[in-house]
Write the structure tokens for this entry.
Amino acid sequence: MTKTLLLLLILLLAGFLAFIPHIGYAYPLHVDEWMHLTYAKTISETGAISFPDPFTGEGIVGPTGNPARM
């Protein structure tokens, strides 16, 4: 029981420490956050999960494209 409680406390602290840079800052901080937001916006605009790369306009991103890019 105490190990479970300690683990939960550590996980909550780690989550809070990871969230601290986002407090009071409305924009994404890391490049992967910008990429995921752009992919989500493109998916909502096109209505498909396979779409041209929004950054280069070349190639297909999604299940039919390069899976390493998703």
The chain has a mean pLDDT of 86. Helices lie at 2-19, 31-46. The chain has one domain: 2-69. The chain is about 50% helix and 5% strand.
